[in-house]
């Protein structure tokens, strides 16, 4: 009969326990007894839990998964630090590797090729008892993975503290003007060397690539005064450079002018000496000729002198004896050439030809006398 049918055996809840709610504890006990292997079923004595073969299979699968969990891959930029029960064992490079799975061995991967950065701004006292604010930036990387993991608890923090110490030491040995102007590069180099020495002594496994001074300024209240001082220094250097440029342009020009004048003076000296030597030699030769024939030489010198003088001047020849008181001078022809111009006498408005004949006869006679004197001198 169904539990919900009417009648003496019907309308009865199967979960009803003496007409009350079901007992949860009893149900749990029955569930555990059925699936937990807590008792025997029937008279056959077979176990109520999982079969032994299934338990062994589960154990084998779990062991295989545990062994497979030991495989790991190290990237090209990384190094793997293998730990055995927390103690350093070895360092492996890039590629796939296997380790004894946890909890026997563990691996810590460290990026050794990546560039790390740290910046620091400090207010420090210089050698000349001035205060300067220095803003620095450091680029570094990991050089030894095992030292980076085991030697120092926090290598990055150690580098920050070492940077503060190094830059304070270098700035404390330098003057403020040196730091603010031309000494930034040198300060950065000295800081890098000192910082690397400190990191190597601590065996942090870090190597410094570069130290840069991004800014170096006096404190805020006195920046205006320092800016004026720097501007004055720059103006001084600019004026010095301009003066040097002017000197470099003027001095070579003056030296060239001096060389030119010296050369011209030497040439003038040589020319004058040569001319004087020539004149002296000519005079000596002329003296020898004069001693042998004084009259002839004297006449020749006179004629040559007159010829030289008269050949370079305009001449007008007048016939004094046959000329009349009224003379006609051809002014328009006198300035045009060096040839002698004979001016005839004017008699009653006419021109006489006697002047030209007399002038031609006088010039021919002078030429004849001059040629005869030269012949005598040559003999």
From TrEMBL:
SMART domains: PHB
UniProt-annotated location(s): Membrane
Listed InterPro entries: Band7/mec-2_domain (IPR050710), Band_7 (IPR001107), Band_7/SPFH_dom_sf (IPR036013), HflK (IPR010201), Membrane_HflK_N (IPR020980), Stomatin_HflK_fam (IPR001972)
Presence of keyword Membrane: yes
Similarity comment text for this entry: Belongs to the band 7/mec-2 family. HflK subfamily.
Subunit relationships: HflC and HflK may interact to form a multimeric complex.
Function of the protein: HflC and HflK could encode or regulate a protease.
Name of this chain's protein: Protein HflK
The species this protein was found in: Oceanococcus atlanticus
